[in-house]
Write a structure and sequence with these properties.
104 residues, mainly alpha, 74% helix, rod-shaped
């Protein structure tokens, strides 16, 4: 019976060592893994950046929707149509001077 105890002891130590290594690995991933504690602030920063980008795109979308409504063929705004002709097709009268201003 004493010999059985000696044989099972190394197996127990090996199993405990493996279990400890597995627990340490899981703990390490919980702290430094891709969704761990250290990545938490980076994920929050990325979320804020993406939200700002979404807000910018929504403003651009609103401006484009406004231009589309002003260029509706049923009731187009003559000033907008003239502006688009001059800018996109380079159509101007001989006596006109075009000044291009940056919108940014």
């Amino acid at each position: 019976m004493h010999e059985d105890h000696r044989i099972s002891l190394p197996r127990e130590k090996w199993a405990q060592g493996l279990a400890l290594a597995l627990l340490l690995l899981i703990g390490g991933l919980a702290i430094a893994g891709p969704s761990g504690l250290l990545a938490w602030s980076e994920n929050l920063q990325q979320l804020e950046q993406r939200q700002a980008h979404i807000d910018k795109l929504q403003k651009e979308r609103g401006a484009l929707a406004n231009q589309v409504s002003l260029l509706n063929p049923e009731n187009a705004d003559p000033d907008i149509v003239g502006e688009r002709l001059r800018r996109d097709l380079n159509v101007v009268h001989e006596d006109e001077v075009v000044l291009i201003l940056d919108q940014e």
